[in-house]
Amino acid sequence: MCILIIEDEMKIASYLVKGLNESGYDAECVHLGLEGLEKLKMNQYSLLILDVMLPDIDGWSILKILRQFSKIPVIFLTAKDQILDRVKGLELGADDYLAKPFSYVELLARIKSLLRRQQYFQENELFIGNLKMDLTQHKVWRNNLLIELSKKEFSLLRFMLLHQNEIITRRQIGSEVWNINFDTDTNFIDVAVRRLRSKIDEGHDLKLIHTVRGLGYKIMVNL
Ligand code: CA
């Protein structure tokens, strides 16, 4: 699938298309906001990179219109690096934000992470291997067998699935799942992960939850 870039600065635009092509992505660029919106209506893109200051219609307005018909991930690219703009963009439904001048490596990392998340997240379901999580019904299956999880275990697993293949620290789990920030006494997180792991991995040859020594945990298909 193709990445669309709406950016009126020709130099940045062609630099991005070239970079993305070299990184193995198809990329298209338009220089006007309305032209971009037309393309987004007519075609399927996997991600949008959107500049804020454009000659015809600004990035905020594009995002507002876009969100009425599409959930495509959007990364704002803008010279306006003030915190208020950032908040505005995220409130309007942007998925990420990069201030110019930006590093291509950082942009690429964010694109990858957004695309990965998108890939796992379809129709309110999350997947890894033969495990499926239904976010609307609050149910989890492994190999089509229903697994009973407590509310917290469900939240913990959802958080892990949204960050699969990434190292998740105990601190992140504490703050995301239990809404607490602390450095010490993280033992109960280990206990909770162990319990979750026994529920989803026990009896299966293929283990999904892995301990990353000294760092935290990782959920992944380790073949
Ligand atoms: Ca611009």
Short description:
Helix content is 41%, strand content 24%.
Structural write-up:
With 223 residues, the protein is α/β, with parallel strands linked by helices. It has 2 domains: 2-122, Response regulator (Rossmann fold, 3-Layer(aba) Sandwich), CATH 3.40.50; 125-219, Winged helix-like DNA-binding domain superfamily/Winged helix DNA-binding domain (Arc Repressor Mutant, subunit A, Orthogonal Bundle), CATH 1.10.10.10. The chain has 8 helices and 13 strands. The protein has helices at 10-22, 33-42, 59-66, 83-91, 104-120, 151-162, 170-177, 187-201, and strands at residues 2-6, 26-30, 45-51, 74-78, 96-99, 121-122, 125-128, 131-134, 139-142, 145-147, 168-169, 209-212, 216-219. It has a 5-stranded parallel sheet, sandwiched between helices. It has a 5-stranded antiparallel sheet with strand order 6-7-8-9-10. Strands 11-13-12 form a 3-stranded antiparallel sheet. Helix 2 runs parallel beside helix 3. The longest helix has 17 residues, at 104-120. Calcium ion binds next to loops.
CATH class of the largest domain: Alpha Beta
Find the CATH topology of the largest domain: Rossmann fold
CATH architecture of the largest domain: 3-Layer(aba) Sandwich
Radius of gyration: 20 Å
Beta-strand segment tally: 13
Give the helices and strands, then pairings.
Elements: E1 2-6, H1 10-22, E2 26-30, H2 33-42, E3 45-51, H3 59-66, E4 74-78, H4 83-91, E5 96-99, H5 104-120, E6 121-122, E7 125-128, E8 131-134, E9 139-142, E10 145-147, H6 151-162, E11 168-169, H7 170-177, H8 187-201, E12 209-212, E13 216-219
Parallel strand pairs: 1-2, 1-3, 3-4, 4-5
Antiparallel strand pairs: 6-7, 7-8, 8-9, 9-10, 11-13, 12-13
Helix pairs in contact: 2-3
Bound molecules: calcium ion.
